[in-house]
């Protein structure tokens, strides 16, 4: 099997409107499609990230909290590339999104930092 690329990333949120606002209005992702599935009492929001990647944002009633600390086995975080880390951090902070201090990747020498979505899912921005 030859994998071409990552097709999409699925995220389950606890508060659909809050997470939709975060990903659309604060991070600037574009809505491709929004569907309410009555049988599952669930929304599915397809988001486009700069015309390349797609995130599927799901809501389900009564979802358990995701353990984030201490780190556990499995998916660690999502990372988004930015051109200028300082500008990106400033923009996030102006939108009341708290970021960790900027660090340098000891392997690549590139700058990066972390922040969280409304459900405390760790998100990273990594300088190009």
TrEMBL record:
Q: Which domain of life is it from?
A: Bacteria
| Protein name according to UniProt | VOC family protein
Q: Which InterPro entries match?
A: Fosfomycin_Res_Enzymes, Glyas_Bleomycin-R_OHBP_Dase, Glyas_Fos-R_dOase_dom, VOC_core, YwkD-like_dom
SUPFAM superfamilies tied to this protein: Glyoxalase/Bleomycin resistance protein/Dihydroxybiphenyl dioxygenase
Q: Which stretch is the leader sequence?
A: none
The protein's GO terms of the molecular function aspect are: metal ion binding
Keyword Metal-binding attributed = yes
Q: Where is the VOC domain?
A: 5-128
Q: Which UniProt keywords apply?
A: Metal-binding
Gene3D superfamilies given in the database record: 2,3-Dihydroxybiphenyl 1,2-Dioxygenase, domain 1
Source organism of the structure: Clostridium polyendosporum
